[in-house]
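Q: Focus on the shape:
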Amino acid sequence: MKNQGEKRYRGLVVFDVDGVIYRDFFLKRLAIHRGFFSFLKLVLLGLKYYRNKINIQELLERGYNLVKGISSDRAVEIAGKIKRVHNLKKTIEILKNNGFFVAIISAGIPSFILEYLADEIGADYFHGLDIDRYSRDLSKEKIWVISKRDVVGKLVKDLGLKWNNVVSIGDDPNNIELFKKSGISIGFNPTKSIRKEATVIIEGNNFLEILPYILREGELPKNLQKGYFIWKREIFRKLIHIIGIGVPFLAQYFSKPLTLAALSAFIVIYLISEILRHHGLSFFLLAKITKGAQRDIETRNIIFGPVFLGVGIFFTILFFPFRYNLPSTMVVSISDTLSSIVGKLTGRHPIPGVKNSSIEGSIAFFISAFAILAFFFPLGVSILVAAAATIMEIIPIYNLDNLIIPVGTALMLSALT
């Protein structure tokens, strides 16, 4: 560590590397370089580790034995090609400009690799696996796994700080002991065990999203404040919601059986993706979409909202003709979206006993639902059904409105007309 004796810091920010700074895993990339069977064996080892069947020391010892023969120079080249999280350098620059000492610590990556990374991103300190930079082979019979808590504890003492001045960012179980000691712990695309321990959970690929949880709002421009990121996710979420309008048209003018089959397949694949995401694994594009659309209250559990929406549209199309399923789907897609946006922008009067709902948002829902229904049905029917759908929307049951609104609206329209 550089001599920092003359400078006082307001806090220490500690970054894990694999899965946080690196968008992949260093040892995995080494195994891929060695060949398919080495990669497959490493994947199986990783699954055992995440299921607590083996500890991190066994994972690293057996893992590095699989990549035996790779030189340190080649390892540096491989590490240099691993994608970094977006806005990494900018995030670290902002933290340092605001008086934070930045450290990168990894239990599974050699220190000589981290030295290159620290220089690249502007970190003040690095600490990693003790493997000789000039060795011809990365494999070791015995690997001594560092204790991140002990390493950070020494840093805290050397910098004249306290543990409540520490912010830790990690994704896997090896960070749990450090998280328990830190003032703020941020799980970044975390595994299931980290979700239980972290103070904050952030998912995605934008490192700037950690800043509102570390710096005060007045220290950040508007486009880096927490509200900006919340709105960005909410708008993305509602754009996905609106896509549901296209499903009735596919069923009516293309093929109803194929449309329902595709919708069923999507629901199943989405659930698999969510289970994997909850355990810290990504499933192609679906996990990326989910991470970009989730709300803060949804980060610790599986998100069932899209499932209920898919099931609601499925049943609406299955049991009701086009003249009923189209306006019903439009109501849940458009009116629910407007209700959320108007409620967040202008909602000043909460509905008693209903969390995250406002009178303003419900009025927006009713007006838009009435406008949609009036295009298809008589005014009296449209007013009555729009009012009923508004009541369904404020039912305080997690995301069940996505299921109840389309089915209930179609049922009422069918009965009244």
